[in-house]
Amino acid sequence: MSLGWYRSFLPVAQAYSGPASPYWASKAFLGLLLPADHAVWTAPEEPGPVETADRCLALPAPGWLLHSTAADGIVRLVNHGSGRLPPPPTPPQDSPHYTRFAYSTAAAPETPPDDESPGPDNHIALLGSSGPSRRGRIHPLYVHGRQAASWHTPLAGLVIAVALALGALYRWTRFGLATRAASENEQAALLAGLSPNSVSLANTLLSALIAGLLGVLAAPIVQVDSVTLPLQVVPALAAALFAGFTSLWIACSAGILIGVMQSVVYYLSTQSWFPTDNGNAMPGLQQLLIFILMIIALYVKGAGLPRRGELVEQRLPAVPLPDRLLRPAVLATAAAALALIVLPFDFRQALTNSLIGAIIVLSYVVITGYVGQISVMQLALSGTAGFVLSHLATGLHIPFPFNALGATLLATLLGVAAGISALRVRGVSLAVVTLAAALAMEQALFTNTSFGGTAGVTVLPPRLFGVDLGPGAAFRGLDGNEPSPLFGFLVLSVAVALGLYVANLRRTGLGRRMLAVRSNERAAAAAGVNVRGVKIAAFAVSSFIASAAGTLYGYNFGSVSAVRFTALAALGLIGFAYIGGITMVSGAVIAGLMSTEALIPHALDKWFGIKGSWALLFGGISLIVTLIANPDGIAGANHRRKKAKTAARAAKTAQALAENATSDTAGAETAPAPEEVAR
Amino acid sequence: MSMFKVRSLGVSYGGVHALSDVTLDVAEGQLVGLIGPNGAGKTTFVDAVSGLVGARGRVELDGEDLTGMPPHARARRGLARTFQSSELFEDLTVTENLRVTAEHPSWVRVFGETFGRRTPPPSAVADALTTLGLQDFADASPGELSQGQRKLVGVARALAARPRIICLDEPAAGLDTAESAELGRRLRAVADAGTALLLIDHDMGLVMGICDQLVVLEFGKVIAAGPPSQVRDDPAVITAYLGASAVQPADAPVHDGGTPSSLTTGRPGVPSSAPETS
């Protein structure tokens, strides 16, 4: 016997095998044992029950309803009882061949092409963008007369089981009690003899285990690639936001409801009336839906100010007051300008990329470093500005610099609008909301061919008074290749101007109010600071900076494409910003040098053959190291070292003075102690 | 004529009435003490009048109704406050902390400033530092200060706004006796200079010594109000602090300082292990 009907056909095969099967199959030949005069061979053929009348037979034991119609001779089986599963407590397993709602003699089971496992078929499923959910265990309810009924939970049932188990764990076990105690007050837990570190480690392991389990379970029904599964974190985070990161029950329900809503949107997008973009359903609506849901959740649950005693997690590096601005700025500018002329073309390009990266990170310095709000959407704003620039320059023929300015302002407006909608959110929740906003922009704007598109749109080079300032300008540097140093100078001047602006911001009243909001929103409000106003101002400034960088991106490559501005790239950039030092302009410069296609990755690639993805891995590891060993980032550590050195020098001078004084006055008590002078 | 009026203030958390029907007046330059056992609703009262907690009732300052205004708007109209745990802006120096309250420039000036215009600190900053004796710490960062100094910076920060009234939430907690007395003298000077003060504290020596009026809260309700000499003999107050059995009519021993011994030691009879959270 072959594994198939007419020929070997694996998709119909079942994943079991037994030596009894041939004997079982040989039962078909048992009739041959009957003698020739047996009624089986001699009785006249009578019409079958199917041929004489419509029939309906209820079979309560297997949970079937069997019926046939005489007119067409078809027999149908409605299944409300039988799967292939042994009875509980065996965990539910997927078995699409056996769990269909209906079978008939006229329909063959739908089978996938060779070598694939059978797909789900003939049941009510949740449709995700990457396929229907599976039907879980069938629980028969009744079969009676012409009716049959059963219930089942889609694979999500497992999620509920996990949630219930977790709920029980945290509620009733000693471990759960320890976890809740440690999360409420680490010090008190420590005094009570618990080790918050081991509790946290155990919880981290548990969460990793659950995430891994879900990955294994979800892999068959979603696409497995480097983007889809990781980005499932966004709807998951939306559910966690509804639950305030504390209630398993709400998280579980919200997660399932969000899944249902996404399925509904997916279903609607297959309808003929659904708006289309270039023949395909309008992209990004699912992401937009999630963003809107988050905003609603946070508006309802959030508060304009943190409540009394509310834990506001705050672990951001200090923001030192810059002592001098002009000297380091002039030195750095001169060095960069020289490098833009003398370096070979590929390094010039990398330097230009670094400068643009540094500008984007400057926007993080304002919003995250100064105001303590983690915004992931900065890169998406850059992308928006780039696309708008293309439309303004190519479509509307608006000349430089008005097109760049217009694009920057429009994208800034978008950033401010997104920021305003998230004013009642702070900390991790804000990071989540802005990540959702970034994804919504990416999917709804960038992949929409009438606005952007993955193929990219052209950006004409900037031209001022007839002079080309773009990468293809006539002046070509020492080696005569593109990109032109002129464009580098343009980028450099924007970077320096914005860098000085951000550094100076720390010295101004607005900067002080931003830091006041970062330290303590309640105290800031009580001190007369308009917290909302300051946040809006910060969103405006940082959106402006990120958008300006976006237009430069556009000019830099002559085109803008969606792939450059993905949410994942944005997360990477925030990582670099932290490594560099997210509270300082010098940190932004360091982060810029490390960013994609910037000087450091380029040098690593060119000299050591280390490719970009390795550099990213290196970046990830150094981020973890940074957060543990050096939370102020590279720039912060430098600053501290410099300060310590200055203090040490002062102390030395003071000591020398004191020694002189002592020798002069021969032991008189007038000399101040060195420590005192050092202060 | 009272400058700061609170009428029928009420705050509920779910079914719990943290404050009900609290009415209170503070006149210009007056120093009013608000006392009560832990959990009586004193901090909630300050949160409510400063707008950090939603409340029923009415808050008036200089005849202007502040009800429904956001906290920063109340602060700019002259209602300043300090916090139990100082809540300084840790990322700013002491002077910068004070400048945040002292400066509320127009948007135009903010714009000018961000393009490089430097402005010197307003004189209120230096004045406030001098009043609290903090001149030497002007450039220190809050992290370098002792608990007592941080409290003083908190008061100075409120004072730098040149407010009409300051609600002081336990400014003396964490101060030793000498520091507390010094703080009392400075607060009295502030009040005498015209800024009204509403002082919440458990240091009865301080409260009894410097306040013009006292208001006693228990379980969110005002149980007594009046001059310190009158309030400290009020049986309801003694019951609130010591329990019903402690009330022995008219024989509370009186010291030279004018405070009954039962009320001098801070918070007798009240478990001192759990400070109110803020």
UniProtKB/TrEMBL annotation, chain A:
Keywords: Cell membrane, Membrane, Transmembrane, Transmembrane helix. Residues 85-94 have a biased composition (Pro residues). Residues 1-47 form the DUF2264 domain. GO terms for molecular function: branched-chain amino acid transmembrane transporter activity. The chain crosses the membrane at residues 155-173, 201-222, 234-265, 285-304, 325-345, 351-372, 404-423, 428-446, 486-505, 536-555, 567-593, 614-631. InterPro entries: ABC_transp_permease, DUF2264_N, LivM-like. Residues 665-679 have a biased composition (Low complexity). The keyword Membrane applies. It is a multi-pass membrane protein. Its main location: membrane. It holds the Pfam family BPD_transp_2. It is found in: Cell membrane. It comes from the Bacteria. One of its GO terms (cellular component) is plasma membrane. Residues 79-98, 106-132, 656-679 are annotated as: Disordered. CDD domains: TM_PBP1_LivM_like. PANTHER family: HIGH-AFFINITY BRANCHED-CHAIN AMINO ACID TRANSPORT PROTEIN BRAE, HIGH-AFFINITY BRANCHED-CHAIN AMINO ACID TRANSPORT SYSTEM PERMEASE. This is Leucine/isoleucine/valine transporter permease subunit. It comes from Streptomyces jeddahensis. The lineage of its organism: Bacteria, Bacillati, Actinomycetota, Actinomycetes, Kitasatosporales.
UniProtKB/TrEMBL annotation, chain B:
Residues 4-244 form the ABC transporter domain. Coiled coil: none annotated. Residues 249-278 are annotated as: Disordered. Keywords: ATP-binding, Hydrolase, Nucleotide-binding, Transport. SUPFAM superfamilies: P-loop containing nucleoside triphosphate hydrolases (SSF52540). The keyword Hydrolase applies. Its EC number is 3.6.3.-. It is an enzyme of class 3 (hydrolase). It comes from the Bacteria. The keyword Transport applies. GO terms for cellular component: plasma membrane. InterPro entries: AAA+_ATPase, ABC_AA/LPS_Transport, ABC_transporter-like_ATP-bd, ABC_transporter-like_CS, BCA_ABC_TP_C, P-loop_NTPase. One of its GO terms (molecular function) is ATP hydrolysis activity. This is Lipopolysaccharide export system ATP-binding protein LptB. It comes from Streptomyces jeddahensis. The gene is lptB_6.
